[in-house]
Write a structure and sequence with these properties.
Belongs to the DegT/DnrJ/EryC1 family. Helices cover 39% and strands 15% of the residues. The chain has 11 helices and 15 strands. The protein is globular. The structure holds pyridoxal-5'-phosphate. The site of pyridoxal-5'-phosphate has 14 residues, from α3 and α4.
């Protein structure tokens, strides 16, 4: 089976983890501090705060900004549930705005009409590794006095124009889950240039402590371990190489998919560096599930990112959400992610293309 995602862990990661295990510092310690410094320097922000996951990074970012009960947060419904849930965790209401058809990202043209007196922040997601249209989103945020938290969980190393994703808003959150472009097993990171927000996030990450056993605010245990940071330090050095391979794999698919009908390759905006966390095609005419089953029978793994808009998830329905975003609904029924990870061999790339050609003759 060619898996749709595969973490690439080498001997270096194993050696670094062993060193941590032998050091005695296995919770948050010097390796976490080192990883934060290296990550901040990679993204080009003044601060980076490591967390236990991308979800906890999002959660404490909103809290650090003082967002809570009665506030609204504008975001995309076409994402992993954590993007919407982080607003719920802090007692705020996520307001879902439809996506741009081409990029699958939050459509800036629809944000303004969703702004109310209660709106405090925008959470754009850089879906599949492609930056949201951050110039327009920043302009709207500035004009309406809103904060921006980038959900960069899928976009390590991605760029918008000449700037790194993760440095384009007030705060940004990354995930290091094993399927991501780099991993720490579980883990997350907040990046920001704002010293006060960074400080708030650090305090919230560790029980709200400003001094030993002095709990100034209601905080959490959302810390990263030195074991995870040791993996992250090695993976960060490999990230650009991993991303380059993903981009080459994506280019190979797009070149070969041109002649295949029924399957629409992903659009890459000329304004971005897309790092292809996912290579996601659209499959037309209700044939997505047939194509998926066919590929799976041929031992090619696939993913659907995401089959259900966040507002249609049971928890949101129970809260009374009656949002409908037509382009999100359509995308949810058409998208199919193919394997694009850096460890794909030439033979595997060829097999995927040949299988798609065969499927196209069969289904379209
Ligand atoms: C867009 C998006 N946001 C948030 C998250 C949450 O990250 P984690 O799984 O590390 O909690 C993910 C990861 O799955 C994601 O893809």
């Amino acid at each position: 089976m060619i898996p749709v995602a595969k973490p690439l862990i080498g001997e270096e990661e194993i050696e670094e983890v062993e060193k941590v295990l032998r050091s005695g510092f296995i919770a948050q310690g010097p390796r976490v501090a080192e990883f934060e410094e290296a990550f901040a320097s990679y993204i080009g922000t003044e601060h980076a705060i490591a967390t236990s996951s991308g979800t906890t990074a999002l959660h404490i970012s909103l809290l650090a900004m003082g967002i809570g009960k009665g506030d609204e947060v504008i975001t995309t419904p076409f994402s992993f549930a954590a993007t919407g849930n982080c607003a719920l965790y802090v007692g705020a209401r996520p307001i879902f705005v439809d996506i741009d058809r081409a990029t699958f990202n939050l459509d800036p043209n629809q944000i303004e009409q969703a702004i109310t007196k209660k709106t405090k922040a925008i959470v754009p997601v850089h879906l599949y590794g492609q930056s949201a249209k951050m110039d327009s989103i920043r302009k709207i945020a500035e004009e309406n006095d809103l904060l921006i938290v980038e959900d960069a969980a899928q976009a390590h190393g991605a760029m918008f124009q000449d700037k790194m994703v993760g440095s384009l808003g007030d705060m940004a959150c990354f995930s290091f889950y094993p399927t991501k472009n780099m991993t720490t097993s579980e883990g997350g990171m907040i990046t920001t240039n704002n010293a006060e927000l960074a400080d708030n996030a650090r305090v919230l990450r560790a029980h709200g402590e400003r001094g030993r056993y002095q709990h100034s605010v209601l905080g959490y245990n959302f810390r990263m371990t030195d074991i995870a940071a040791a993996i992250g330090l090695v993976q960060l050095k490999k990230l650009d190489g991993f991303n380059q391979k993903r981009i080459e794999n994506a280019e190979y698919f797009t070149e070969h998919l041109k002649g295949i009908c029924g399957i629409e390759p992903p659009f890459v905006s000329p304004e971005v560096k897309h790092v292809f966390h996912q290579y996601t095609v659209r499959v037309e005419d209700g044939k997505r599930n047939d194509l998926m089953n066919y590929l799976n029978q041929e031992d090619i793994g696939t993913g659907i990112h995401y089959p259900i808009p966040i507002y249609r998830q049971e928890i949101y329905q129970k809260m009374g959400y009656n949002t409908t975003c037509p382009l999100t609904e359509k995308a949810a029924s058409e998208v199919l992610s193919l394997p694009v990870h850096p460890s794909l061999s030439v033979e595997e790339l060829e097999k995927i293309v040949i299988t798609l050609e065969g499927a196209s003759d069969k289904f379209f």
